[in-house]
């Protein structure tokens, strides 16, 4: 059944208008972004032009022109008596939403933060291939994971001060596979889940897809303010809390020792299960000292990790480290959807985790150089944009001089640069996100230099100091946020 968007809900998603230009253009651009980043899904039925005009406080003529523009670009289909429906215009050759179609080869996409394969990765594949005959002698059905990989991961946790047995590890298809599995297995419809005010949007969508009610913490305080957590938990029972304490996505912040102590105490007091995403913990570019993993503060915590951030986006191996009593329910829930992660990819990860760390170090060195290059380019081209240097993670989290993220994203697309607008990372108070932009530094230096040059053109256009441009052809490529 198609989702019907009310005028009130669509107005919330669009956010307050900046009134910096023609209203129809600003609304149409923002609606395109909502479709591209998945907040408005394919098949959604839109409110009538009259209803949307009333919700936004604009004229009917304005919303009529908005819908006409969206129909011209192929995003909205309207039929007399049936209303207007979103139709995502994927090109036939786009097997993945991350693939740029051939006629858009000049487009630069800074919409996902996944690294290219580091030097040495091919050697791990070759070593795994040499061990493939032994693997082929088995069925390959591994709902809990390759025993050798589970043993290696358990040993790594133990060495970090968290005693772990192989039986506490469940291997998944990437961190998203772990998050989705935990949402399905642990959260019932209507139960509440605490989340950070700004965070990885696909994770939050995994919880809402199973009917969870998200309690987003305020964004005007620290990301992990213990007082805000206590206020939230005191208001109603909560089932779980999802957090990213190490090089948080998108801000790259690190939860302090004192914050972990306070959070663990508060979550235990209210019997809330911590679901801790550690997929960026290994991307420690400056070698800063991190507090121990969260489960050392609260043994009930369920930890998630991933190889795709530390090594290569295409190596889709994730894992869950859980208390003993939760492992079998997770495995049983997992078998309703699939019977295991790629056995060969698990062999590859075994090689990477036992080689001495050279490949991971090479990847971090490449990312560190790319981060520093992007910082230098931003300082040279956009000196009035605030760009902190993150100690780890895969992205810069920049602060813009005014509320302009959605406008800037729309303008950048006209210059062949795909970005994710800041509001995408905020569960509520999306207007705050208009001051922010996430810029991954996972591309080659030449691409980052060109990306910043295009960003500067878009920036000048939005501020009125440049000449607006019109795309020579519609850009129909859709990008995934990771």
Multimerization status: single chain
Main sheet attributes: strand count, strand direction, barrel closure: 7 strands, mixed
User: Count of DSSP helices?
Assistant: 16
Q: Please name the CATH architecture of the largest domain.
A: 3-Layer(aba) Sandwich
As a percent range, the share of strand residues is 5-15%
> How far apart, in Å, are the first and last alpha carbons?
27 Å
How many β-strands, per DSSP?
14
H/E element sequence = HHEHHEEEHHHEHEHEHEHEEEHHHEHEEH
Structure keywords:
single chain; about 475 residues; alpha/beta; Arc Repressor Mutant, subunit A; Aspartate Aminotransferase, domain 1; Aspartate Aminotransferase, domain 2; 3 domains; seven-stranded mixed β-sheet; three-stranded antiparallel β-sheet; 16 helices; about 10% strand
């Amino acid at each position: 059944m198609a989702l019907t968007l009310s005028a009130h809900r669509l107005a919330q998603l669009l956010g307050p208008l900046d009134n910096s230009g023609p209203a129809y253009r600003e609304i149409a651009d923002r609606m395109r972004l909502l479709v591209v980043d998945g907040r408005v899904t394919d098949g959604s039925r839109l409110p009538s032009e009259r209803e949307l005009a009333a919700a936004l406080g604009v004229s009917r003529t304005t919303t009529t022109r908005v819908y006409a523009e969206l129909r011209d670009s192929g995003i909205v289909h309207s039929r007399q008596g049936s209303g207007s429906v979103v139709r995502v215009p994927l090109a036939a050759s786009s097997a993945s939403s991350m693939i740029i179609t051939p006629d858009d080869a000049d487009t630069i996409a800074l919409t996902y933060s996944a690294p290219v394969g580091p030097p040495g990765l091919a050697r791990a594949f070759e070593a795994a291939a040499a061990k493939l005959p032994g693997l082929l002698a088995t069925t390959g059905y591994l709902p809990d994971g390759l025993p050798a990989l589970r043993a290696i991961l358990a040993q790594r946790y133990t060495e970090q001060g968290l005693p772990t047995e192989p039986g506490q590890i469940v291997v998944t298809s990437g961190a998203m596979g772990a998050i989705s599995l935990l949402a399905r297995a642990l959260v019932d419809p209507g139960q509440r889940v605490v989340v950070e005010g700004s965070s990885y949007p696909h994770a939050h969508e995994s919880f809402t897809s199973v009917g969870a009610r998200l309690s987003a913490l305020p964004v005007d305080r620290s990301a992990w303010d213990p007082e805000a957590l206590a206020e939230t938990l005191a208001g109603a029972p909560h089932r779980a809390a999802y957090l990213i304490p190490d090089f948080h996505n998108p801000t790259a912040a690190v939860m302090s020792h004192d914050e972990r102590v306070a959070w663990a105490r508060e979550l235990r007091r209210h019997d809330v299960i911590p679901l801790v995403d550690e997929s960026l913990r290994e991307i420690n570019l400056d070698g800063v000292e991190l507090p121990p993993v969260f489960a050392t503060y609260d043994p009930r915590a369920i930890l998630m990790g991933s190889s795709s951030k530390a090594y290569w986006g295409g190596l889709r191996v994730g894992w869950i480290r859980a208390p003993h009593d939760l492992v079998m329910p997770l495995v049983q829930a997992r078998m309703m959807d699939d019977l295991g992660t790629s056995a060969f990819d698990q062999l590859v990860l075994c090689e990477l985790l036992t080689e001495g760390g050279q490949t991971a170090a090479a990847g971090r060195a490449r990312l560190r150089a790319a981060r520093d290059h992007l910082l230098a380019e931003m300082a040279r081209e956009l000196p009035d944009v605030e760009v902190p240097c993150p100690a780890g993670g895969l992205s810069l989290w920049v602060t813009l001089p005014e509320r302009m993220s959605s406008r800037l994203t729309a303008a950048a697309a006209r210059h062949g640069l795909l970005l994710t607008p800041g509001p995408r990372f905020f569960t509520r108070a999306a207007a705050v996100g208009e001051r922010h932009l996430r810029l991954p530094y996972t591309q080659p230096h030449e691409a980052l230099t060109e990306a910043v040059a295009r960003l500067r053109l878009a920036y000048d256009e939005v501020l009125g100091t440049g000449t607006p441009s019109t795309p020579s052809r519609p850009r129909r490529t859709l990008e995934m946020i990771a």
